[in-house]
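Supplementary Note 3. Input sequence used for the single-chain structure prediction.
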Amino acid sequence: MATVIVGAGIIGSATAFYLTQPPSTAPASSIHLVETSPELFASASGHAAGFLARDWFSPSLASLGALSFDLHKKLAKQNNGAEKWGYCRSTGTSLAEVKGKRGDEWLRDGTSRAEAAATHEFMEGSGPAWLTRSRNGDVEVISEDDSTAQVFVTYQIAEDFSFFDTFFSDPLRLSHFLLSTCLERGVQLHQPCQPLSVNNGSKGNISSITITSSADPEKQMSIPCSRLIITAGAWTPRVFETLFPNIKKTIPITSLAGHSLLIRSPRWNIGDETKGEGGCHAVFTTDETGYSPEIFSRVGGEIYIAGLNSAALPLPKRATDRKIDEKSIEVLKATAKRLLGKDNGDDDLEILREGLCFRPVSGKGVPILGKVDEGLLGVNTEGGVWIAAGHGPWGISLSLGTGKVISEMVEGRQTSANVRKLAL
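The predicted structure, written as discrete structure tokens, is reproduced below.
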């Protein structure tokens, strides 16, 4: 049965990854990934933090969160994730500099964030050594055992993760690993290509999808399609509307733009990562300007800072058409200087990258995972039309669990997590 996945970000790649391994029996060559962007992983899949959590989720997401966290751990152990995509433990810390507020409060409201656990030398006993804080700042360790992780750029990390349950990952490298594995198995990638329409067969069922090359719009091709899965992140509503223009139903997903900086600091280097069980930290804090900065030290001597989000920035046609707002970048730079600079206020930080990504946010605040009612589509489908999008700030953490569960759904198998409340 031919499967078309529109959106080759981390969710789409994870879905193809689990559709091409046992107990799945579909030939990998029958699975097609369609990606509109000329640059792979140009939005959240490549520019998010990479924070992984087990139990920072609302009840409706708890089962999926736990499953996905365990799958990240299993994948890293089986494929040397420490070296390939920087899978490592990290300590979560809340730094409250605004009285009455915690830096992690917004993460625990509705949906949540993750923590990564590893030891690192604290500045005067409270907080990572690279963190500069005011005398009135209140630092509180918020990581709990067996609850968080990160995935990032790597060099050397412990090979045995049996005692770790809190980690980080570099989402860009993880996404590339998933996609490259799928391609090695025989999955077909069409990129950059734009989906145009669905086509019906003699029985009235969806039989194929027409796509066009972004480089040459006159060049069109038809891909066999019995099962259609839309994993286009913030662009999911646009894809659905394009393929089903006569349907009044809309997919309740909007975009949340988030700027970020990737920084190098003299107070955080590769040698720090080998101290104790690993040296990464996740710091959630507050800012007098009203936003909640998130700061993550990564394997490889890098520090990622974000948290300045806006729903007002329009979603571009493609991820590569994004336009970074310089004022937002200046706010992040000021925060970096205040929290990561030298105690005397001097700025000795090196800016490695300025980033902007668009996270998909659903109306309910939790991702949408499930089948679109055929009554709404107005056409019959042999394998169904499925949506997997709207993960907000948790796309990386929930990616593997989402891919596995959607693969089980489309094949009619019992799902590994309870996602009944995430239906469209």
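The chain has a mean pLDDT of 83. The CA atoms of residues 274 and 338 lie 26 Å apart.
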